[in-house]
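Can't paste images in this forum, so I'm doing it all in text. The chain is below; anyone willing to post the predicted structure tokens underneath?
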Amino acid sequence: MDEIQFEVTEERKKFLMNKIAQKVVDYRLSPVAIVFLESSKPLSFLGNQFLIFMQPFYRALFSYREYEEVAAMLEDRNNIEALICEIERLEEERNEAKRAEKNSRH
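Text version of the structure:
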């Protein structure tokens, strides 16, 4: 049986990275995710293979197509760095909103 290959456009990459980063920030896992992603950069291909192995668990968070696109994206170290930057950006936005809310109460 032929394996289905998903072509991931730049716009789609941005959407998926934002979705992943938002879930990480929502679950307050930013520090853990960043350390994990930073440490996995040299092993991005092996990390991708691990994603394939863990597919049943990740499918709870993503549709089949999204899962396959994310797995393909994370083979590239540049995409891992972009995901880290997106997590950091969203985490900073969340922290700024908390500070603004705290300051408005005083």
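Residues 10-105 form one domain. The radius of gyration is 16 Å.
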